C-alpha cells in the first residue's frame, strides 16, 4: 500500500467509468422504457472535494443518457466523453487538454473496456466486484462497492496521499 500512496501523490486528474463505478452496474427500466440510474451522494461529495483540492475529474463512458448528463452537470464535470466504445481516444484527448503525463492520471474502471486505460494510467483503481483479470491490473481495489461510495473512497485516498484531505475536513469543522 505505501507504493500506492506514492503513485497517488502525483495524480492531477481522476478519470471515471460510469457503469460499475459511479453506478452499481444495474440498469432499471420503467414501463415506458426509460432507464433509471442510481448515484451515491457520497461519491458526489468526494468528486466535489477532489475538484476543490485542485484535482480535475473526468468521465469516459460507453453510456449516453439524460440521467448521466444531468448528474455530470450537477457535479460540474466538464470533461465528459459519453458513448465511447473505445475509451483510448478520449483518454488521449484528456491527457492532451490537461498537458499531463500518464503518471499524473488516475483511472477507475471495472471491466474489459477499461483495461487499456487501467494499464496505462499512473494510478489504476477498481472495485471488489470487478472480474479477477481487472483486479490483477490495478493499484487499489476499494472496500466500498460500485455505486455505493467506491468513488468517494478513491477520492479520499488520493487526497490523503497528497495531504489534502485533513484540510478539507478542517474547513467543515471551522465553519460552524
Q: Roughly how many Å apart are the termini?
A: 35 Å
Q: In DSSP terms, counting alpha (H) and pi (I) runs of 4 or more, how many helices?
A: 9
CATH hierarchy, class = Alpha Beta
Number of strands: 8
CATH architecture: 3-Layer(aba) Sandwich
Describe the main β-sheet briefly. 6 strands, parallel
Average pLDDT reading:
93
User: What percent of the residues sit in helical stretches (DSSP H or I)?
Assistant: 40-55%
Kindly estimate the percentage of residues that lie in beta strands according to DSSP.
5-15%
What's the structural domain tally? 1
Q: Name the CATH superfamily assignment.
A: HAD superfamily/HAD-like
Question: Which structural traits does this protein have?
Answer:
single chain; 176 residues; alpha/beta; Rossmann fold; six-stranded parallel sheet; two-stranded antiparallel sheet; 9 helices; 15% strand
Short synopsis of the structure:
The chain has 176 residues and is of the alpha/beta class. It has helices at 2-8, 18-22, 41-52, 66-74, 88-98, 115-118, 132-135, 150-161, 165-173, and strands at 13-16, 28-29, 35-36, 56-60, 79-81, 105-108, 123-126, 140-141.
Please provide a written account of the structure.
- The protein has 9 helices and 8 strands.
- The N and C termini lie far apart (35 Å).
- Helices cover 41% and strands 15% of the residues.
- The model has no long low-confidence stretch (mean pLDDT 93).
- By secondary structure, it is α/β, with parallel strands linked by helices.
- A 6-stranded parallel beta sheet has the order 5-4-1-6-7-8, with helices on both faces.
- The chain has a single domain (2-171), classed as HAD superfamily/HAD-like (Rossmann fold, 3-Layer(aba) Sandwich), CATH 3.40.50.1000.
- The chain is globular and about 50 Å long.
